[in-house]
Amino acid sequence: MAQVGFIGLGVMGAPMAGHLLRAGHEVTVWNRTASKAEPLVSVGARPAADPAAVAAASDIVMICVSRQEDMLEMVDRLSPGLRGDAIVVDHSTTTPAAALGAARRVPAFIDAPMTGGSMGAQAGTLTLFCGGSLEHFAVVEPVLAAYAKRVVHVGSQAAGQRMKLANQIAVGGALIGLCEALAFAEKAGLDLELTRELLNTGAAGSWAFTHYGPKIVNRDWSPGFSIDNQTKDFVYCQQEASELGMALPGTEVVQGLLTEMQAAGRGAETTAALFEWLLKESAS
Amino acid sequence: MAQVGFIGLGVMGAPMAGHLLRAGHEVTVWNRTASKAEPLVSVGARPAADPAAVAAASDIVMICVSRQEDMLEMVDRLSPGLRGDAIVVDHSTTTPAAALGAARRVPAFIDAPMTGGSMGAQAGTLTLFCGGSLEHFAVVEPVLAAYAKRVVHVGSQAAGQRMKLANQIAVGGALIGLCEALAFAEKAGLDLELTRELLNTGAAGSWAFTHYGPKIVNRDWSPGFSIDNQTKDFVYCQQEASELGMALPGTEVVQGLLTEMQAAGRGAETTAALFEWLLKESAS
């Protein structure tokens, strides 16, 4: 069993740290809002005063925050306490440039963004895209298995983030396909549940139709994955595409629509609410 | 068993008529290029001299052509021979307006566009979206089952076409998501087959990733569903959206890119070739 630190105990991090405890690891935790650590401390996690104290108690330190500027701040704040042979694993979604920036500060760095959402974190069935050296990967892989069904080495440092951004681009396409098709069906007077079910059985079928389609039929805009989170990731996609000298014309359209929804105060809703936005747009 | 006519013996129609024969129906056929009828005639189909002669020999007349102007021409040409209680079923993809136009000429009309592609036609596992009266639907349903795994009544006349266009809109979104994500991955230096496999297991997963993804990895641009066919359907989608007073911003982007590819002489390739176009665009 390992000494593991966990920084960032939000909707993803808290259940992930819980899985580490249940797997028998010694887990030291810190969160900006300290009260979020309490449920974990009550089941055996050790509270730390600051990120450096987490690092001082750990062979592997996980970071799980939202924005890349927060991730970079955590790397700065934990590094004074870092043990000589410790490895830092970042689960946040960031640009590849931010991952490489963190790796300059902490060379034993693995970027390990995840898919599977809050339900995957709770069930311990996340998929992790890991970028870093194979040597470091071999050390952390069995520990990460506590909350992931798949822990995949996809390349050197920053490759995990590149894979995650590719994933978000594909998610955006599936989202506009789903929302635009169902908005069209609604305007055309088709039965929405029949449309969702029929289209999902053929060449238009997708995870989005299966999981977001029913939310649209029921007009349930609770997240899920929020518009705020999706647009944050799209900004990172565009930054990296610009580095690579390429355009992302499909992503641009979805990003533009979701950004309009944010401006209208709907950023906390699920991305599937785009369906309603397309209907409203057409009514105006 | 019924007396069935079949007009249009292309890559879809020929195997569909074959299934009708094997189901024991009396099948009369006609095709603009007469030689395409020969293989069916050799296994028991009756050749007709023109569409009116097909209608004169049939209780149910199927039409299966590409463009809606061809469908409307066939309706015109068959109607002089049509029996009093005969039903016309159109499997082409058209605008809802064209279906309603055909139904004015031939009131016992069912629009029944299909999904499942040439492989579905050969295997007899198509899905049919049927618009028309329930009374007519009840008559044709058991006959259509000869080549379809699902024959679904989705509403009154033209509703089948509306469902098919909704399907094509969703297919377009899935396509841009797939091609843009894999083009990004390629530019970012990720392993393309690993990317395809990993993304398909999560929230980005789709029929497109499963079936078109491997073609992209192998740079195999043989259709599949061609860019020419997809852009034809997108024109119909936009015409109907305009009737409904709504915009299709995602479809517009995919349509624009595929239309550029047509202009570059790539219309006969599979839609998945969009991957290569996005890479070329970024190189220019």
Query: Which oligomerization state do the chains in this entry correspond to?
Result: homodimer
Coarse morphology of chain A: elongated
Largest interface: A-B, 72 and 72 residues
Write down the CATH topology of the largest domain in chain A: Rossmann fold
Number of strands of chain A: 9
Series of secondary-structure elements of chain A, N-terminal to C-terminal: EHEHEHEHEHEEHEHEHHHHHHH
Major beta sheet summary of chain A: 6 strands, parallel
Full CATH superfamily name of the largest domain in chain A:
NAD(P)-binding Rossmann-like Domain
Which structural class fits the helix and strand makeup of chain A?
alpha/beta
User: β content of chain A, as a range?
Assistant: 5-15%
- CATH top level label of the largest domain in chain A: Alpha Beta
- The number of helices of chain A is 14
| Mean model confidence by pLDDT of chain A | 96
Q: How are strands sequenced across the largest beta sheet of chain A? A: 3-2-1-4-5-6
> Helix amount of chain A, in percent?
40-55%
Any low-confidence stretches of chain A, pLDDT <50, length ≥5?
none
Q: How far apart are the first and last residues' alpha carbons of chain A, in Å?
A: 60 Å
Instruction: Please state the CA-atom Rg of chain A, rounded to the nearest Å.
Output: 20 Å
Summed up, the domain count of chain A is 2
CATH architecture annotation of the largest domain in chain A: 3-Layer(aba) Sandwich
Protein model, in words:
The structure is a homodimer. Chain A has 14 helices and nine strands. Chain A has helices spanning about 15-20, 40, 50-55, 70-80, 95-105, 115-125, 135-145, 160-185, 190-200, 205-210, 215, 225-245, 250-265, 275-284, and strands at about 5, 25-30, 45, 60-65, 85-90, 110, 115, 125-130, 150-155. The first copy, chain A, has a six-stranded parallel sheet, with helices on both faces. In chain A, strands 7-8-9 form a three-stranded mixed sheet. In chain A, strand 8, helix 7 and strand 9 form a beta-alpha-beta unit. In chain A, helix 8 (about 160-185) packs across helix 12 (about 225-245), helix 8 (about 160-185) packs across helix 13 and helix 8 crosses helix 14. Chain A is elongated, with a radius of gyration of 20 Å. The termini of chain A are far apart. The interface between A and B is large, with 72 and 72 residues.
